[in-house]
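Anyone opening a protein record will find just a pair of labelled lines. The record below illustrates this layout.
***
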Amino acid sequence: MSKWKTKTVIAALGILLLIIVLFYGVLAVIVIATDSAPGGGTNSPDRPAGFFKGIWHGWIAPISLVLSIFDKSIRIYEIYNKGFWYDFAYYAAIISGFGGLSLFRSRSN
């Protein structure tokens, strides 16, 4: 690999890392500001989380995991949910968030 290609790849990875850090930083602020983390008290048996909350909770799962260390009421999964559609959305968000990183990996011959 030429020096130019190596420098381009390193710069692209640095930019990608910066975008990921900024994205999760903004999500952390939103979660803290809106109290919308799973188990944060916004959902109950009378008001269960649905499809869109499942997507949101899947996207913020890493942040919720860290926050759960400091606040025992925060979980990474909302126990008061509507069932299949919440589970489907949660899983789809996790897969798209973490599986999407594989698009940036180079393929070996």
User: Anything to note?
Assistant: Residues 3-104 form one domain.
